[in-house]
Design brief:
alpha+beta, globular, 8-stranded mixed sheet, 30% helix, Nuclear Transport Factor 2, Chain: A
Length: 145
Amino acid sequence: MSVELERKVREFCDAWGDGRDASRPDVEKILSMMAEDAEWQLWVPGGPVVKGKTALRAEIERQMAFATNNKCNEVNILSNDRMVMQERSDTAIIMGRPCPHQMVAIYEFDDAGLISRWREYLDMADLTRKMGIDEAAAGGTEVPV
């Protein structure tokens, strides 16, 4: 089962984009891989938690307004029967600036094999510095400026 969950996480990450200018997140595919009541903690520690598919869609679309060229680059992955941990070195253009960033993402799965909880451990101070914004602006409901 754990190898199957790793495959699902890789497919999920691929749906966010391949790094090309024309590549955009496949919102429908992303949401189809998540439980109806799924939770996404945008960053740990302290980041907001987005709950439910309606809110998840809104957050993905909010991010699409200022982030392009998304690419999840796996460094390491490990799993058990209900959870996958993935170390990544991602790339994106955020607010017109290159913003490479390292993270560890944790995905928990429900009985149906859908992502029920997802959280990303990353250095938001580093990422917001690269974005050129205050860290407080990153977790709002509006597009950061």
